Amino acid sequence: MLISLHAQPKFAGKVQKGIFSINTYGKDGNLLHQGTGFYVGQNGEAVADYAVFKGAYKATVIDASGKQTDIDCILGADDTYSLVRFRVNTKGNTVLNMVSAPANKGSNAFALGYSNNGTGQSEQAAVTDTSIIDGKYAYYALGKKFDDKLIGSPVFNESGSLVGILKAPMGEKSYVLDIRFKEVLKMEAIASRSANVALSNIFIPKGLPDSAEESLVYLYFKSRNTSNEEYMDMLNRFITSYPQNAEGYYRRATPLIDLQRFDDAEADLQKYLSLCTDKAKGNYSVASTILNKLTLQPQPAYDKWTYDVAIDYVDKALTLNQTETKEEAEKKNNDIEYKILKAQILRGKGDYDGAISIYESLNQGATKSPSFFYAISLAKEGRGDSIGACIEPLDSALAMFPDPMPADAAEFVIRRGKLYANGGKYREAVADYNKYCYLMESKVNDVFYYERSQIEQNARMFQQALDDINKSIEIAPRYAIYRVEKAALTIRLGLYDECIEACQAAIALNPDIIDSYRILGYAQLQKGDKANARTNLQKAIDLGDENAKTIMEKYMK
């Protein structure tokens, strides 16, 4: 029922300024939902029903005076109990005074709607029942059904203290969620299922957890599955909240690099260096960031970041690591880590001799590792050493693994197999491919079977090659090239029917592969089907295949 102004609760005028209207908007900018919210904390902290925010990309509030303000960010949400906590870009708000204990059964509760003219809608009813959520928070049943327009409105006790938020009615009763439940709504690095569901359906910028430490964990997880724009917003919020925390500047440099804002990224890295307490680690981190830019995003170039600059940073890290006061074990581990990075930078620069020298020095005594032998193999290949010289360190690496070999050895085996193939040692290469497949428990993809098929053909292991190309087709049946490769193999073996079938399947998948028509025409020619052979060879010729022209001239005079 509607209560006129003179029948409103006596505290209405006092609390009305703390209640506002909410408009939310979809991705297209059109109005999505309208509802009610109210202030529950300082700095614009407020709550509202989750249904108002579901699917929203933007939201604004209109206060009791009619002023419109954007909602800054979401501070927490819950799908199960349909509540959102958020921050509005305002100051000096009227914060509603909350109860410190649950309301008693039989006490009166007053729902008060938004008003910009002093005549807000209001209803009252007695508390008839109370349930407890999570052993702490109340969920009240009221003795009558309130108007649906009041859903999401604040509910007060007789003294004007905030009890909760009005939820949707069921039957002839209304329900109120304890306002203290807002304390559950937090941004957390590892959120509950209900929070995850709610937050994933709200596209307004999110706030951060309450502490710097948890915020950094939260940012780490979010960096892997959010856009640069959203991640940057989170980092900007972190830096605003914790301007003396070095880690925020270091992390922000990465999306700035992705956005090609290199001067801003450089400024952040220098700020990070000035604030970090472990200067050795700081210089190492900057060197690593520069290396990532040079290798993963070489263009456009940034003249302040070169391989030589990265080397200067890592050399400084190595020097500082010897002088800063630390535990000796940690210092030694860091020294190894820094030298590995320097070797990687040298290899990226093309100084393979320098990289190999570092890896060989690390590969002495207790620090000897298969990974260093692997890196030496890569550096030797970059230097242009012989295939045998590149394989030698891999042999040494594999000799360090126990027998039987663990799955960790697989990457060493497959690299050696590829090198054998490049060196013309096809049967040795097939043996390593077979060993890799075994170590991977046959969990390999279509490309693996295709590569092994090619090597097996060179090793004149034709049946194995045919089996493998069939396996590639089985895994990736829509990839026409595998059908063409099968056709080329089967025609070599005189399996003309299989060849014709493979060509026709390839053409059906991709009619633009020229080889399909030439091979098909030649196979049909071998079967005595000159009419179709002529058609397909001519198609290949029309597409620019000189080999098809030669076949036509030789066999189709």
- Judged by helices, strands and strand pairing, the structural class is alpha+beta
Percent helix range: 40-55%
Total helical elements: 22
Alpha-carbon distance between the two ends: 98 Å
Give the overall shape. Answer: extended
**Mean pLDDT across all amino acids:** 93
Protein model, in words:
It contains 22 helices and twelve strands. It is an alpha+beta fold and 557 residues long. The protein has a domain at 5-183: Thrombin, subunit H (Beta Barrel). The strands form two sheets. It has a six-stranded antiparallel beta barrel with strand order 1-2-3-6-5-4. A six-stranded antiparallel beta barrel has the order 7-8-9-12-11-10. Mean pLDDT is 93; it is low at 1-6.
Quick structural summary:
This protein has 557 residues and is α+β, with helices and mostly antiparallel strands. It is 50% helix and 15% strand.
How are the SSEs placed, and which strands pair?
Layout: H1 12-15, E1 19-25, E2 31-39, E3 45-49, H2 50-53, E4 58-62, E5 68-78, E6 83-88, E7 108-112, E8 122-133, E9 137-142, E10 154-156, E11 162-170, E12 173-178, H3 193-200, H4 212-222, H5 228-241, H6 246-258, H7 262-275, H8 279-296, H9 307-323, H10 328-349, H11 352-362, H12 370-383, H13 387-399, H14 410-422, H15 426-439, H16 446-458, H17 462-475, H18 480-492, H19 496-509, H20 514-526, H21 530-542, H22 546-555
Antiparallel strand pairs: 1-2, 1-4, 2-3, 3-6, 4-5, 5-6, 7-8, 7-10, 8-9, 9-12, 10-11, 11-12
Helix pairs in contact: 4-5, 5-6, 6-7, 6-8, 7-8, 8-9, 8-10, 9-10, 10-11, 11-12, 12-13, 13-14, 14-15, 15-16, 16-17, 17-18, 18-19, 18-20, 19-20, 20-21, 20-22, 21-22
